Amino acid sequence: MKWRKGPRPWTIRLFAIAFLTVAFVNLIEGLSNWYLPMLRYAQWMPWIEWDADRAIVGVFSEFTIALIPVAWIFGFASRIALWLVTVFTLVKLLDVPNMIMAFQSVGGAASLAYFLDPVLLAIALICLVLPPSRRWFAKPDKTAAAVFE
């Protein structure tokens, strides 16, 4: 893979901003309420004894993992990353009805990040399917053609 040269379309920039905002808000939320990720991780991986330090490392790991598809899409125009982001975002968005029911069951007590995530992820996903983004991913790689000349 080579770094894609040239200006990025506005849709790719907006995707990166939306996706990074979700990652950053989750990082801040996880660091300010470290016990919530600790409980979530304990449900996912009960064989590990979770404490505050491990929860903080887990929150930073999630943030770092969220940076990878942004770099692949923004920097390399990777179609594989496009499909991975699409699939994982759609899976996350399928949980929105459950989020709404949970929000109603607690009487509307939830953080900003609770509903900011799906909204920004939907914006990011829409940006990836707009025509400027499709052209960004469809640009032929001239370096591969130069190898055979």
Provide a short characterization of the protein structure.
By secondary structure, the protein is mainly α. The chain has 8 helices and no strands.
Describe the structure.
The chain is an all-alpha fold. 77% of the residues lie in helices and 0% in strands. The protein is built from eight helices and no strands. It is globular.
How many DSSP E strands?
Answer: 0
Structural class: mainly alpha
Helix content: over 70%
Per DSSP, what share of the residues sits in E-state strands of 2 or more residues?
under 5%
**Backbone CA Rg:** 18 Å
Largest sheet: none
First CA to last CA: what distance?
A: 19 Å
Number of helices: 8
Give the H and E element order.
Answer: HHHHHHHH
Oligomer: single chain
Mean pLDDT: 87
Uncertain regions: pLDDT < 50 for 5+ in a row?
Answer: none
Shape: globular
